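re: the backbone from monday

yeah here it is again, tokenized this time
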């Protein structure tokens, strides 16, 4: 009898232990899952709107580093906020530098950080504002195509985007993020600025 009650006690203790382990596991998994689901499915990345989310992605993604002309501030070049994302100013003359040297010995960038010289010739940062000289007439598919494939204006038959546009890394945004970026760009103040076309290199390269 004594033996039996000892066995019963052992069984009870063990089953309570296993049950508690089980339920611990379950709640553990459940709460992990909840976190994952919450982070992954937060609408608009947790921002109040798609446009706000896009603004965050553009600011954190450094698009303005090249697409917003710089002016000199106390700590060096800073964004000219009146020209936000409007690209290389059309009225600026082409970089007056030794093209041969710049194309073979290094790179050149203008003080606005919008005109670039390298082995590809001269490229100018594009106007990304909602103006028709920017992305005002684009649709969402074009934008995704441009970033994913590095094609001007997001059109299949157009030329490849030139350096230093880092589309090879920007293409890693997922579709929802790129759509948010596009909706933010569509909401920007339109700035009329017809960015000049690129110039071919003066030095012929052996490919
Ligand atoms: C290091 C500089 C640099 C950065 C950073 C950069 N861009 Fe660009 N981008 C350029 C240049 C230069 C061009 C023009 C390339 C050309 O003419 O082929 C360009 C072109 C583009 C175009 C094509 C415009 C057209 O008319 O076809 C889009 C769209 C674009 N950039 C979006 C972005 C977005 C969005 C970001 C941030 C996530 C970004 N860029 C970050 C330099 C940059």
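seq for it, each position gets an aa:
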């Amino acid at each position: 009898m004594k033996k039996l009650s000892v066995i019963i006690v052992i069984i009870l203790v063990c089953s309570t232990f296993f049950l508690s382990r089980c339920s611990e596991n379950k709640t553990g998994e459940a709460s992990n899952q909840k976190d994952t689901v919450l982070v992954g499915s937060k609408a608009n990345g947790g921002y109040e709107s798609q446009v706000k989310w896009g603004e965050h992605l553009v600011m954190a993604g450094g698009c303005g580093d090249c697409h917003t002309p710089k002016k000199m501030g106390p700590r060096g070049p800073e964004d000219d906020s009146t020209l936000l994302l409007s690209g290389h100013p059309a009225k600026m003359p082409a970089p007056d530098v030794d093209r041969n040297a710049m194309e073979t010995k290094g790179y050149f960038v203008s003080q606005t950080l919008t005109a670039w010289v390298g082995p590809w010739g001269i490229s100018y940062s594009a106007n990304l504002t909602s103006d028709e000289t920017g992305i005002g007439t684009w649709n969402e598919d074009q934008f995704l195509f441009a970033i994913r494939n590095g094609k001007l204006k997001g059109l299949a038959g157009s030329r490849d985007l030139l350096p230093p546009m880092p589309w090879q890394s920007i293409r890693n945004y997922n579709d929802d993020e790129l759509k948010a970026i596009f909706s933010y760009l569509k909401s920007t103040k339109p700035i009329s600025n017809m960015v000049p076309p690129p110039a071919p290199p003066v030095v012929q390269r052996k490919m």
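The two ends are 92 Å apart (CA to CA). Residues 68 and 76 are 15 Å apart (CA to CA).
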